[in-house]
Amino acid sequence: MKTKLTIILAFVASTMSAQMLTRGNEKLDTLCQTKFTAVYQYSISTSDAEGHPVTDSIRLALQVGDGVWKTWTYERYLFQQQRDAEIGDDHFWFMHNEALMHIATTTVGYPEGKTISLESIPPLQYEVTEDTETPTWKIVEGSDSVCGYLCQKASGKFRGKTWNVLYAEGIPTAAGPWKLQGLPGLITYAADDEGIHTFKLIGIYQEAVPITYSAGSMVSKFSMEELRMITTVIPYETATREEMQKQKKNVFGNRLYPSNPRFYMTGSNEILSVGQKSGNYQFMGGLYVPDKAHKYQPLELK
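-> structure tokens emitted (302 positions)
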């Protein structure tokens, strides 16, 4: 019996990525077609559970269409494009960074004049809808080059932070990574004045592919009766931006959170502990929870 249970748990562990990356039963709404997709390296300077300085980094894809743009992890973008081979066999490494950095999927311009962010506080995922707000930009004298594009400088205030950016007038769009937008050209580089958050363009795909939106999160559960994973779509919880900020501050901003993230996740008894080379992690409500976390560095202070 013990051997059989070990085999089952090994099988579940090997397929847990389906909880985060799965195509089955998902209904996607197509918002528009992209004009291009920009890829950024996003970095956060922070500290680990012991207080040592660390830098977390992950790639983001910015899909740009007419009046609509979507920022999400590059690996999820690759998966939707069915370019799985570029992700590699181990999905957990980017899920780990995604969870450490509290990456949201942000769609600007859908619905018109609105911004929707899909946020996660395990075991729940939230849909946050707000009015699209443009940073207050000021053009700064000087120029630089990013990925071979001549870029102009600008500085702007947004939600309690000052951002220093570069934008390429040769790429005609008001888009930028995350919620940074509203300049006469693609934002190719952005860093807050504290040097905590940095977005840097590393490549552009000229392509016409769908920008999509899903009305629910996909959760896979292992059926002991059928000995297989069963995937269902669960509607997102809804919250205002202010409610989401407060929840994230209370959970992720707790000074003890980095040393024991799972303690602060409530509402689900469905926990699977899985070993990895750099430590342990759990899935709660289908969402990845690291065994140890890093100090929370919010993008918005107000």
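Residues 161 and 192 are 7 Å apart (CA to CA).
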